[in-house]
Amino acid sequence: MKTRCFYIMLKILVMQLAYFDGFSQSGFTAVPPPPGSSGSYIFGTQDSNGYMWFASNGVHRFDGYTYTSYYNDPQDSTSLAYNRIQAIYADRKGIIWVGTNGSGLDRLDPQAGVFTHYRHNPENPQSLSNDLVSIILEDRVGKIWVGTEGGGLNCLNPETGIFTHFRHDPNDPASLSMDEVRALYEDREGTLWIGTGFPYTFILGPSEKYKEGGLNRFNPSQNNFTRYVHDPNDLTSLSDNRIGTIFEDSKGQFWIGTAGDGLHSMNREKGTFKRHLYNARDPNALSRPPVRNILSWLEDFIIFINEDTNGNFWIGTLTGGINRYDPESGKMTHYTTLKEYPINKNQITGLTWGAASKDGVLWVGGAEGLFRIDPEHQLIPHYDIGAPVTSIFQEGNGKLWLGTEDGLVVVDSSGNTKKWYSRDLSDSTSLSNNKISSITQDSDNNLWIGTFIGLNRFNRDSQKFRRYFPGSGNNITIIEMRNLVFSICENKDGSFWLGTGTTFCLMNRKKGTYIHYGLNQIEPDSSESYTFLFEDRDRYLWIGSSVGLNRFEKNTQTYKPYLPGLDISGIIEDTDTVLWVGTNRGLYYFDPSNDGFVPFTIQGPGQTSNINVFQILEDDQQNLWINASIGLFRLGKNRKDVRFYGKEHGLIPSIGSQNGCFKGLGGDLFFADYLGNGYYKFSPEKMKGNLTPPQLHITNFKLGDSTVTPGKRSPLKLPLSETNEIHLPYDQNVFSFDFAGIQYSNPDRNQHLFMLENLDYDWRKAGEDKTAEYYNVPPGDYVFRVKAASANGVWSEKS
Question: How confident is the model over 49-80, as pLDDT tens digits?
């Protein structure tokens, strides 16, 4: 037993160190910055293929793993015009539009890698009106709208390259309200909205001009605008003219964010606004974060408003942080920082951009860097009781019994700790020992508690315990391995099977007598320990020990060994009568046709082979939940779909046996936190996660080491994204494909598989480079197929 204890202590140290490495306290995950970029003040967009495009210093395409970067090359006129970027936008055709800080508008064709430049030309009235581009938008008919700083609004016809200008005219109230364009939005009805105004006071000077701006609705039939501006005498007008963002939610409600305390919902028919002001006495009311004008040369204002797939609103500000508002619960969550370890509570987020990708992941860029958060991502609730938990049981009335190494804890249905039971040396009706190893309830609703020294029956009326000692003698000061009650299993006749430290026994509860059994009549000082007993539906008793599994035939009192040498920690029988066993070398299931156990390897994020499986539960939907040394797995009812839950879900990988888990009322699942101080409890139905499948793309085709580009003499006639077939000569038998499976919820746990069909190959796991290479392939017709699974076990396939 000494060796076993040392192994557990070592595991505790390693797991604790692993847990504190990289766990995000804010819920936001830092994304590595593009190469050659500081990673701050980033703007972004997503193209039709799923790629994210980021810009600050240069332009960068991101697939969740690697970047493809574009920079200005003074020797190449087709490169990016200028590395300092203020806006980036992907249109429906996959063209990337880039707004620079002084060098105009750029158009990038990602297939060709060539930039086309649009610059202001004073001699050409149909050119771009100003080279300081602040915002870009494609409308539903394919026109490109370009907002500038000081040059007003431009509409580009991509076919002709001609710009139409819309400027502020102080003598025309139907003109644009200001030439500083900060926001563009097209609503569901196709109406174009333009937000103007400027937050940086040091540029415009100390005059009141910096407070100008306003919201504009474009009227295409008259080619003019309807203005909505602040009126100090009208509380239904905008509270501030400087527009930061415009957004329409899933219910058609229109939202406007401005400088200052400027969260507004708009009635577009009446042209009125409702102000949602911050109230320190009601911090959960819908509002932006508290205004923090911490710099003299700019005003805090709302950068973005977004609604996630759960209906929650995200309101991001320049320096005040981010608010997440849940309309259903009326609860507000405030993020003052995006960093994992903030320097102080008043950390400046300095946001510049925020938007959601197609999979629902929210991206945020700012002075702190680039971050993402998946609103579908759930944290597994943890409940701290102040002590490590070893065993769990819940009564029908909701009362929770928790075994620890410091006694027995009772938690009432409201979640408040009600009572703590421990050993009292002066009271023989107290617990026999404080180290609890198992808790169960018999068919007569009696509660039984196994400890390191003896078994205890709890009397609910008297609140007292009666002690039983399977070992020799009743001296509870002596630690005898046969008194260490690991497992309690009730027999059909009401007797108990007890798994103890070195043997198992049959207990006659009425007489208080014991019949001891053991493989080869194990001696008390044997190193073998029995950790778990389970009786299946055929009434076989399964005995899991530190050196293997045995099936005990009670009538003949014979044993059949299985899984020799493995440490058994958990056994269950699922709804389909399949027996599952957790071991120190992974998960196994019983195959009756071969009378043996088969290792079960999960094809998905993480593998269950050669890892330590501690607990197994089946939920009400017949999913299996497997608590292992690297985290928690969920196997779907078909035993093919897999989802993984780890430290990013707030879960600390723990250790223990099957006693440390329980399926309670309403199907809630409980798992003990032995390495921390408490337990986890969650509803399986609520742990759905992000079910968006990865977007799969074959991104590159090579002959030998050379990338193949489209051309008349090339085997690739069209861009790869538009190609269905590639024909190669019979002697061209060395080629390779690059591919990407894009799903941003947790890309590090996405899995990629590929195969070349018609060859005698199985699915192969892709390496980090996501490259499939084939050498000396014989002539014939083949299909290259690739599969990808997200971290939540959702698969997609492409060929």
Answer: 999 999 988 999 999 999 999 999 999 999 99
| Cβ proximity of 211 and 223 under 8 Å | no
Distances 677 to 384, 489, 606 between C-alpha atoms, Å? 5, 27, 26
Q: What is the pLDDT of residues 381-433, one digit of tens each?
A: 889 898 899 999 999 999 999 999 999 999 988 877 788 999 999 999 999 99
Least confidently predicted of 175-179, 374-378, 476-480, 568-572: 476-480
Is the Cα dihedral 392, 395, 398, 404 positive or negative?
Answer: negative
Q: Give the residue from 235, 258, 231, 259 showing the smallest Cα distance to 247.
A: 258
Render the burial of 97-126: b for 16+ CB within 10 Å, e for the rest.
bbbbeebbbbbbebeeeebebbebeeeeee
Contact status, residue 82 vs residue 125, Cβ threshold 8 Å: no
Could you identify the residue written with the tokens 């892709």?
766
Residue entry with tokens 């026109």: 143
Residue 525 predicted with pLDDT over 50: no
Q: What is the pLDDT of residues 103-161, one digit of tens each?
A: 999 999 998 899 999 999 999 999 999 999 999 999 999 999 999 999 999 999 999 99
Q: How far is CA 18 from CA 12, 612, 629, in A?
A: 10, 16, 11
Its pTM stands at: 0.79
How many residues can be counted in the chain? 799
Strands (E) in 414-557, as ranges, are: 417-421, 436-441, 447-451, 455-459, 464-468, 487-490, 496-499, 504-508, 513-517, 530-535, 541-545, 548-553
DSSP 651: P
> What are the φ and ψ backbone dihedral angles of 749, each rounded to 5 degrees?
-110, 10
Task: Give me the phi and psi of 523, to 5 degrees please.
Answer: -80, 155
The pLDDT-based confidence of 724 (bands split at 50, 70, 90) is confident
Q: For the chain, report the end-to-end CA distance as a whole number of angstroms.
A: 55
- DSSP state at residue 358: T
Query: Within the chain, what is the greatest distance between any pair of CA atoms?
Result: 108
Question: Within 13 A of 738's CA, how many CA atoms are on the CB side?
Answer: 15
Spatial separation of the C-alpha atoms in residues 121 and 127, rounded to whole Å: 6
* pLDDT in the model for residue 19: 26
Using DSSP, state whether 49 is helix, strand or coil: coil
Rounded distance between C-alpha atoms, residue 194 and residue 214, angstroms: 8
Residue that is written with structure tokens 């003040």 in the block: 41
Token readout for 265 is 């919902």
**46 vs 70: CA distance, rounded Å:** 16
Residue 761 has pLDDT above 60, yes or no: no
Mean pLDDT of 490-501: 86
> What's the burial of 577, exposed, middle or buried (CB within 10 Å: 0-12/13-18/19+)?
exposed
Choose the weakest-confidence range: 253-262, 285-294, 715-724: 715-724
Query: Quick one: average pLDDT of 685-696?
Result: 84
- Long-range contacts from 428-435, C-beta under 8 angstroms, 24+ separation: 428/467, 429/462, 429/464, 429/465, 429/466, 430/464, 430/465, 431/407, 431/456, 431/465, 432/456, 432/465, 432/467, 432/469, 432/476, 433/476, 434/404, 434/405, 434/406, 434/407, 435/390, 435/405
* Token duo for residue 502: 């070195």
CB 302 within 8 A of CB 183: no
Single-letter code of the amino acid located at 311: G
Give me the residue label for tokens 């392939």: 777
Closest CA to 327 of 339, 312, 314, 315: 312
The stretches of 226-369 forming alpha helices (DSSP H) are none
Instruction: Retrieve residue 156's tokens.
Output: 């580009």
